[in-house]
Specification:
Largest sheet: 7 strands, mixed
Order of helices and strands: HEEEHHHEHEHEHEEEHEEEHHHEEHEEH
Shape: globular
Strand content: 15-25%
Helix content: 25-40%
Function: Catalyzes the transfer of the alpha-amino group from S-adenosyl-L-methionine (SAM) to 7-keto-8-aminopelargonic acid (KAPA) to form 7,8-diaminopelargonic acid (DAPA). It is the only aminotransferase known to utilize SAM as an amino donor.
Strand order of the largest sheet: 4-12-11-10-7-5-6
Structural class: alpha/beta
Radius of gyration: 21 Å
Distance between the termini: 24 Å
Subcellular location: Cytoplasm
Protein name: Adenosylmethionine-8-amino-7-oxononanoate aminotransferase
Cofactor: pyridoxal 5'-phosphate
Pfam families: Aminotran_3 (PF00202)
Number of strands: 16
């Protein structure tokens, strides 16, 4: 490690709070000095494959010339302007792209995934008020989910096994069904229970919010696409706003451009983020139907009551449009299939369970991971991983080549043995 790097890390340890960490007893951090392609450069270590895509967002890797140029061009015009009473070309262009891709009608641009889910939940609540059903102020969801760290989002995360159980007494009480099953054969019995739960609580439910096809930070767990059709049918039967949280799953990660495509289901609201800008800037969106928008407009406020300062940031919108261009021209589907084929090597690892879906590979151990030991073991093989709970997993950039994916699999095996 360089002297300058050591000084920065000491200041970081004294002053900076990192995600899900203690300030008084912080976990070790590593200094990133650069990034390019599929690799980040760590001070004292050098370039390593980023098996996490910077928390699933940098699907095109780092310093991509197309994305870099999109940012430069937009900086020369303007970096930011308020969205209240004003608009600009990058936002209008991005909205058109999202409407075309989702098959929905109206776009609210937010500044993070959690905020997009908050907005979607507000849409559902205001839609019910505008439809003459103000008593519908709770949400139906399933156990094992994760939707973000802001307050309403936390209320629809798993109430027991999730990261937010300490807030359970302060959060709005929601209605939780069983985890959706992985196998089609198990869907009918689960669906019967889920339908009964929805019917029992229907008169107070505003919406149904789920992560389609893959539950992310709640456990990295895929489930049967048939469950998505059950969600749509339940929402239609009881007049619920169906919200799909595609922040982690969108833009090809599961092997479908949107995870909902696996079942041919269209939600009433879809939330996107993370890979939307290729990992360059924070941007998210909640995209909804005209029916939902009309309900919101008919509510007592007459308007959707949300407005982030950096909503519709021009830099973020410009690079998001460039990222969508890259996805449309780079054959993302072939990239994801190739990565998924390489990740099949994970099945050779002795573990409690191995899961591969699209460009997602997960090894679940039969014990809690020793994060420090597992991380060191992965770095010894030239790969950055960030395990949590009993999971060692990867969501690598789509630009990874076969050698990168082989290295990731070797690193996960070493991390599983060490952790």
């Amino acid at each position: 490690m360089t002297a300058a790097g050591g000084a920065l890390l000491r200041q970081d340890r004294a002053q900076l709070w990192h995600p899900y960490s203690s300030m008084t007893d912080p976990a070790p951090t590593r200094l990133v000095t650069g990034a390019a392609g599929s690799r980040i450069t760590l001070d004292g270590i050098g370039p390593v494959v980023d098996g996490m895509s910077s928390w699933w967002s940098a699907v095109h890797g780092y310093r991509h010339p197309v994305l870099d140029e999109a940012v430069r061009r937009q900086v020369d015009r303007m970096s930011h302007v308020m969205f209240g009473g004003l608009t600009h070309e990058p936002a209008v262009e991005l909205a058109g792209r999202l409407v075309e891709l989702t098959g929905l009608d109206h776009v609210f641009l937010a500044d993070s995934g959690s905020v997009a889910v908050e907005v979607a939940m507000k849409m559902a609540l205001q839609h019910q008020r505008g439809s003459g059903r103000p008593g519908r102020n709770r949400f139906l969801t399933v156990r094992g989910g994760y939707h973000g760290d802001t307050f309403d989002c936390m209320s629809v995360c798993d109430p027991v096994g999730g990261m937010h159980s300490m807030w359970s007494g302060l959060l709005p009480p929601q209605v939780f069904g069983d985890r959706p099953p992985e196998l089609d054969a198990d869907v009918p019995a689960w669906a019967q229970r889920f339908r009964a739960l929805a019917a029992e609580h229907a008169d107070r439910l505003a919406g149904l919010v789920v992560e389609p096809l893959l539950q992310g930070a709640g456990g990295m767990r895929p489930y049967s696409p048939a469950c998505l059709r059950v969600f749509r049918e339940v929402a239609d039967e009881h007049g619920l706003v169906l919200i799909f949280d595609e922040i982690a799953t969108g833009f090809g990660r599961t092997g479908h451009f949107f995870a909902a495509d696996a079942a041919g289901v269209r939600p009433d609201v879809v939330c996107v983020g993370k890979a939307l800008t290729g990992g360059y800037l924070s941007l998210a969106a909640a995209v909804c139907t005209t029916e939902v928008a009309r309900g919101v407009s008919a509510s007592d406020s007459g308007a959707l009551m949300h407005g982030p300062t950096f909503m519709g940031n021009p830099l973020a919108c410009a690079v998001a449009c460039a990222s969508l261009d890259l996805l449309s021209t780079s054959d993302w589907s072939a990239q994801v299939r190739r990565i998924g084929a390489g990740l099949q090597a994970l099945h050779r690892i002795p573990a409690a369970e191995v899961r591969v879906l699209g460009a997602v590979g997960v090894v679940r151990l039969d014990h809690q991971v020793d994060v420090a030991r597992a991380t060191e073991a992965a770095l010894a093989h030239g790969v950055w991983l960030r395990p949590f709970r009993d999971l060692i997993y990867t969501m690598p950039p789509y630009v990874c080549d076969d050698a990168d994916i082989a290295a990731v699999c070797t690193a996960i095996a070493a991390a599983a043995e060490a952790g």
